[in-house]
């Protein structure tokens, strides 16, 4: 059996019933009955003891509960001193209080259906007890003091474990009804018990050696002895007893009527309570049904919303992955081109051919300084002067445009924009200078040696092969920096930090290459300036028209592509290499006598053997050659050999502005929402 257990709490109905009965017992004009039955009590509440004590209740009904003890710790049994009827049947009582005999007014004690194993000795002090019901317990014997119950009329000890009756029952002269289990009795024998109460009393009296008197006759001698005398007094006592008994019967009948009335009221109350509870349950069910419908609707809406949100997130994630893939491809292309530039730069640094080319260039320049008599005679003064004038005008125009751009940029930095009128005036001045009289400029150029020298210097810089290659590489690096800046801006808009360090390293590498190429450009310009100074020192012989003759020599000089064509290299092949910015390999193709048809059958390994090391350039050359041959199948005139006749010397004229090298980036083009890029120098201002 567990030492500790949790008391079962009464239900709401039981608690309401208890409160109702307690309030009913305290009302003004209430009867002497306190009925707290069927309230699921584990102990008698303190209020019941207080009510019985204060209001002097005479009937206490506590049946059909879960009582394990009659008196709680904080209460006293003397609070029930006025109780005459105590009904405790259908409980869990295992014992009675030892001082149960203090209830001297008790007349009816109902202990049916409990767990009693014995009765206390003080039960014999209940002198006015008339009915004792201990049916359905676990009694094995009755106490000896039970013989002191002088007023006991009914004793029910059936459905117990009793096998013998105590002889002291013979002293209870008023016992009229004795109920017991005949089959289980051993003393008296079942034969005696089966006859009835009178037979049992006679047997016990015989065993005790006392005479037997019927209960109806027992009071006459007693009353007579108490009255001291006459039969008239005995009749009066019997009459008084009968009146009292009739009065008690009337009281019990009234009690039963009131109990029945209370029961009807209770049933009516419970009926109304059940109806209210049923209506409340119906309302609760309707509310729950509506609540479930609303929750289901909300749940469906939430599921649809979550499904749409999931689809939208999936779409955004797919777009983001596509964009990141494009960015990665662009970054890979930038990295490949940077690697290519590094390889080209390293190869150009380490190539001995460049040094040899520089030396040949110096020898050629020295040869140019020597002016022959034939060139003097063939000098076309007027045409060369016109070409010089056009060259100087272009140079001056470019300088003015550059000055205008620098002024505008300086004005934007200082946030003080110049007026449109001043800008128009500058452009009008430029146009006015462009519209100078050609004849006046020609005559001035013919007279001024310094202008001739300046024109020769500009043409020399433009015709110099190394200077042009450096300019093309600078343009290519600037294009890569611009795409890298756009790529970095797009990453900032996407708020991603992936490969940010790689972009920074690529920018640093390109910036380093740009600085190095600018230094090489400046160095080459200084070398050309030095050559010009040497030519000027040799021209101190005051030879007439020295600079005009040098300018005409540069104009008459055939380009490398024309020379290679004269050597037998196909025009289509030359154009192919120039288109792919691979004119540096023209001598290689001419040396190996590579034709367009032979190129279409070659592989990347064959190109690498003859000196073309870049893998991307190898693929581009082979692909372009196949495309040209595919077009030539439909147009055979494209492959006809060029006439071997040397073209006549072109008329001297100012050289056209050479087109920029087709440095097409290999990275995929990105679609920007807005064309904006930052300056590759300051990294702050947007490019205007």
TrEMBL record:
Residues 571-631 form the SAM domain. InterPro entries: Leu-rich_rpt (IPR001611), Leu-rich_rpt_typical-subtyp (IPR003591), LRR_dom_sf (IPR032675), LRR_domain-containing (IPR050216), SAM (IPR001660), SAM/pointed_sf (IPR013761). The keyword Ribosomal protein does not apply. The gene is Lrsam1. It comes from Nycticryphes semicollaris. Keywords: Coiled coil, Leucine-rich repeat, Ligase, Repeat. Residues 649-665 have a biased composition (Pro residues). Gene3D superfamilies: Ribonuclease Inhibitor, Transcription Factor, Ets-1. One of its GO terms (molecular function) is ligase activity. GO terms for cellular component: cytoplasm. Pfam families: LRR_8, SAM_1. Residues 313-375, 467-545 form a coiled coil. Residues 647-668 are annotated as: Disordered. This is LRSM1 ligase. It comes from the Eukaryota. The keyword rRNA-binding does not apply.
